[in-house]
Amino acid sequence: MKKKYIYITLIKIFSTAFILASCSSAPKRATEVFAVRNGSADQVDLGNKAVMQANYDTAITYFKEAVRLATLADDSACRVHAKLALGNGYQAQGKTKEASDTWNSALADAQLSGSNYLISAANIFIARGQLSSGKDAQKVKETIEQYKGGVSQNELYTATAWQTLGLAEKELVALLRILRVP
């Protein structure tokens, strides 16, 4: 009788474990999360390569998949990076509204995460988009100056900040020349 009780108890335990392991809402194991997160990063890399080859539709597909995987992994940093890349893809296609909406979505995610680094990165990308859309170069310059220190650990984002700052300065100088201000 005692063996039967132990046997039934073990079956209940294994059945419960099996159900939890196979349930999609069950917490993912660390290796699954890393695999999904790495998959998101891989999709961003593939998307960036497609952008470099002017295959924008393909790039957008990769970037959207990167966002989906980052969301699945519940990784806010990965999701923000993927959304910034997706916005870049839209920008490369000339879809400025979609780019702006995507970068603003990345900023919202960054703000929820509380990460100064992610907030800074999103604001830099938004400012760059505003500058390329003809928005106020002085405001863009101020935004970049405010947030460029927050991305100092990422060479690409730092370069984007400095490049955008330089372009804003160039526009301001051109405006001063038009207005003939010494």
Question: What can you tell me about this protein's structure?
Answer:
With 182 residues, the chain is an all-alpha fold. The N and C termini lie far apart (99 Å). Residues 2-26 have low confidence and may be disordered. It is built from eight helices and no strands. Helix 2 runs parallel beside helix 4 and helix 4 (76-92) packs parallel to helix 6.
List the defining traits of the structure above.
single chain; 182 residues; mainly alpha; 8 helices; 82% helix; 0% strand; disordered N terminus
What is the overall silhouette?
Answer: globular
Count of helical segments?
8
**Number of DSSP strand runs:** 0
Mean pLDDT: 83
The fraction of residues in strands falls at: under 5%
Q: Main sheet, how many strands, which sense, barrel? A: none
The whole-angstrom Rg is 23 Å
Order of helices and strands: HHHHHHHH
Helix and strand arrangement:
Blueprint: H1 2-22, H2 30-52, H3 56-72, H4 76-92, H5 96-113, H6 116-132, H7 137-147, H8 155-179
What's the short version?
The protein has 182 residues and is an all-alpha fold. It is built from eight helices and no strands. 82% of the residues lie in helices and 0% in strands.
